[in-house]
């Protein structure tokens, strides 16, 4: 063979090998998937024989494709719908989500959903991670023909299935027999039902658009009144009907608005939560993003909550879609403590009822016993805006012997703002790094000015005391309140030496004395 010919043959062979390699790789992956499918089917056919939870899980996890350097682009760009979970092996929230994700993958396969579910160890494969846009952990992204959109559903397996069905396949489940309706009821506790004479026309289209846009509630439809009645017993035989169903005393809410996408979504947003929602790590984002800005939070242990539930549900019914009622397990450090700290009640073992107006970021505390009457009155006042916002305060201290007076939330008005004297206030927190040094300086200054009866030294622990007029974010902070201008305290540098601080104080006192002299 001539050298050029040999080279061409070599090139052709190389090309063939390369193509073959790529092809087998794809084929391997597909076969792997199909094998898992068959296995799932075989196991499903076995019926009676129950798989252990671990077996189900490990099988489900294999339905999820593992993305790596070499297959990521191909999988994401070569399929219409791919849901990617970007995770890191050391991240506990990833670990928590993984089994739910795998379980959802199994359910979606069974439903015949075309979605490919894939996971990427973003720690191990940084290149594909940056290609996909995985930044935090865990990250869920839906790729539609290679273009990504953020995941916006809930985080249980059922939540993922509902969301995926909405965005990729069948946003509404259609019921055509009593058996189907009954089966549906065993699976879904919360859903939006639509009855339409025909599944067409502008009203129906808005309903389907709402089903697609909503991120978490299963929509169901039927054309027959008898079937609709299985799901929503006192359905009105109008030509079209919408209602939400939940599993609790306030079980049915009928929609009476116009069949317009945004109105339907608003109805869902205001009605989807139960009368009392239990806050969990999984639903916290949903709860915080509710359009209902007035929220009453009940912190209690499980037994106290059980005793209080009927009462709370009764009250919640009165304030439906105006106030959201949330239960937080008082023993759950992660969920309860950040809230209780806002009330200075982090050590409380007894039931605490607090409220937030998220549109004004104010907080309120029920300071009487959590009885039905008291909670109702609290809610009424919250609605009318007549509750006084709550400010933390330690008990009023005894300052008779103190050279630096301890100020608490309750004494801030009297001792600082209404006092006729100049006040140097040190604002500290127990955990701040440089607070102790500043405290020592203030002690020394207090000694130095002991004789001057018109100058007071004070300090307040900002972690346990609040006042609407005290807005400090850095600790320590030194504020000099001049007797004649309490509304505008002067901030002194905490980096100043003792001498410099004394000089500043003298300057203000001197100006004041000068003014006094001039006035005389
Ligand atoms: C994805 O691309 C295919 C082929 O171009 C197209 O038929 C399909 O409608 C696209 N899917 C979506 C959801 O846009």
Automatic annotation (TrEMBL):
GO terms for cellular component: endoplasmic reticulum lumen. GO terms for biological process: protein folding; response to endoplasmic reticulum stress. Its main location: endoplasmic reticulum. It is found in: Endoplasmic reticulum lumen. InterPro entries: Thioredoxin-like_sf (IPR036249), Thioredoxin_domain (IPR013766). It catalyses: Catalyzes the rearrangement of -S-S- bonds in proteins. GO terms for molecular function: protein disulfide isomerase activity. It is an enzyme of class 5 (isomerase). Keywords: Disulfide bond, Endoplasmic reticulum, Glycoprotein, Isomerase, Redox-active center, Repeat, Signal. Residues 1-23 form the signal peptide. PANTHER family: PROTEIN DISULFIDE ISOMERASE, PROTEIN DISULFIDE ISOMERASE-LIKE 1-5-RELATED. Acts as a protein-folding catalyst that interacts with nascent polypeptides to catalyze the formation, isomerization, and reduction or oxidation of disulfide bonds. This is protein disulfide-isomerase.
């Amino acid at each position: 063979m001539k050298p050029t010919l040999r080279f061409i043959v070599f090139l052709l062979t190389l090309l063939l090998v390369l193509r073959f390699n790529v092809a087998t790789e794809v084929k391997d992956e597909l076969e792997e998937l199909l094998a898992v499918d068959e296995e799932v089917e075989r196991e499903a056919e076995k019926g009676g024989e129950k798989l252990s939870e671990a077996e189900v899980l490990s099988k489900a996890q294999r339905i999820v494709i593992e993305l790596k350097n070499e297959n990521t682009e191909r999988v994401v760009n070569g399929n219409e719908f791919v849901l990617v979970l970007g995770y890191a092996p050391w991240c506990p929230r990833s670990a928590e989500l993984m089994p739910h994700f795998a379980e959802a993958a199994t359910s979606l396969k069974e439903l015949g959903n075309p979605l490919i579910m894939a996971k990427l160890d973003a720690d191990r494969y940084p290149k594909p991670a940056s290609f996909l846009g995985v930044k935090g952990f865990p990250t869920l992204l839906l790729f539609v023909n290679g273009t990504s959109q953020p995941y916006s559903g809930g985080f249980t397996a059922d939540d993922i299935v509902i969301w995926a069905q909405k965005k990729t396949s069948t946003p509404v489940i259609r019921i055509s027999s009593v058996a189907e309706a009954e089966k549906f009821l065993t699976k879904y506790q919360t859903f939006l039902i639509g009855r339409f004479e025909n599944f067409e026309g502008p009203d129906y289209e808005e309903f389907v658009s709402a089903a697609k846009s909503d991120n978490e509630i299963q929509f169901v439809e039927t054309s027959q009144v008898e079937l609709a009645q299985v799901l929503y017993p006192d359905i009105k035989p109008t030509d079209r009907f919408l209602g939400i169903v939940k599993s609790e005393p306030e079980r049915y809410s009928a929609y009476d608005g116009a069949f317009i996408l945004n109105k339907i979504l608003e109805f869902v947003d205001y009605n989807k939560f139960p009368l009392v929602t239990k806050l969990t790590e999984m639903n916290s984002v949903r709860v915080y993003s509710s359009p209902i800005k007035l929220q009453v939070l009940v912190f209690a242990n499980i037994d106290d909550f059980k005793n209080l539930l009927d009462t709370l549900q009764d009250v919640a019914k009165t304030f439906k879609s105006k106030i959201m009622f949330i239960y937080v397990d008082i023993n759950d450090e992660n969920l309860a403590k950040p809230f209780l700290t806002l009330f200075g009640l982090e050590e409380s073992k007894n039931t605490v009822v607090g409220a937030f107006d998220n549109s004004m970021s104010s907080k309120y505390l029920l300071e009487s016993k959590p009885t039905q009457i008291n909670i109702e009155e609290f809610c009424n006042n919250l609605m009318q805006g007549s509750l006084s916002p709550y400010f933390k305060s330690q008990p009023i201290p005894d300052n008779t012997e103190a050279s630096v007076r301890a100020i608490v939330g309750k004494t801030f008005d009297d001792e600082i703002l209404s006092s006729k004297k100049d006040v140097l206030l040190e604002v500290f927190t127990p955990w701040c790094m440089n607070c102790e040094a500043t405290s020592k300086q203030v002690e020394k200054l207090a000694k130095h000015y002991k004789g001057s009866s018109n100058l007071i030294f004070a300090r307040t622990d900002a972690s346990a005391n609040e006042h609407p007029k005290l807005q400090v974010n850095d600790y320590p902070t030194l504020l000099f309140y001049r007797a004649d201008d309490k509304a505008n305290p002067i901030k002194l540098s905490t980096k100043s030496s003792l001498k410099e601080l004394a000089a500043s104080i003298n300057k203000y006192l001197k100006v004041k004395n000068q003014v006094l002299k001039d006035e005389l």
